[in-house]
Amino acid sequence: MSHDLREFPMTDSNFEHIRGVAYQRTGIVLGDHKREMVYSRLARRCRVLGVTNFDEYIHILESSEADELSHFVNSITTNLTSFFREGHHFEFLLETVLPEVFDANTATRRVRIWSAGCSTGEEPYSLAITVHKFLKKNVTRYKGWDVKILATDLDSNVLSHGRHGVYRVAGSDGLSAEDRREYFDELDQGNEHELIAKDKIRSLIIFNRLNLLHKWPMKGQFDVIFCRNVVIYFDKETQKVLFDRYANILKDPGYLMIGHSENLHRVTDRFKALGGTRYKKVC
User: Fold this and answer.
1) Is residue 65 part of a domain?
2) Is 153 marked active-site?
3) Closest CA to 278 of 78, 95, 55
4) Do 70 and 156 fall within a single domain?
5) Which positions fall inside the CheR-type methyltransferase domain (predicted)?
6) CATH no. for residue 206?
7) Of 19, 85, 112, 153, which one is the catalytic site residue?
8) Enclosing domain of residue 8
9) What's this model's pTM, rounded to 2 decimal places?
């Protein structure tokens, strides 16, 4: 179909401009194969804004950046996640990483975990459940410790979802029946059953909006970073910069988990591969 026959004409120049903004502001690379996705998602913004073509939309994006840029980012980012996705990471965290990290922090009694690209919150809540289980098993030894999980994302909509901590029962397959009972309250909303995260895991998580390519406001270092299925949107040069910054903000020992389709080969030599997309900082 010719682009001229669409509801909102999008020229090659329009698409080049849009993906230029995406790369400059977020580091996200929008390949040619993403053109249809970009069109369909931004067409919704055109309808909301009452514009008739992408020339007008780009003008609004450039002239009112603070407002529209947030909507733009929310539109082009994809958020696919689930509780305990890639479960071997959480098993490794519980059985190996947390015992080592807590032993290393006996002087400060402080542990910090970062879920970078947390989407709608299933990952940080899975982390919180894992941490709570560890603390429950070691309640005497680690009572009163300062443990927090920072959950960040570029998309303000998914962060709001995470802060509310409300999830559909139908979409909670990764949770065991025991975890659902222990860590969530269930509400019957007529045709829909919902799970609401209990305070004992909500209190461990801080949700904040963050562009990974901009300056990070965090002052202290982290013990563990989960950055899974995020860098697939970045080119190699951006990945090199990002993983170098992760190494800088990780303690030693410090652990990094990435997505199953990602790897650090020829990207950085600052982590040792442990198998299963699990890495440990080496320098």
Assistant:
1) yes
2) yes
3) 95
4) no
5) 3-283
6) 3.40.50.150
7) 153
8) 3-76
9) 0.86
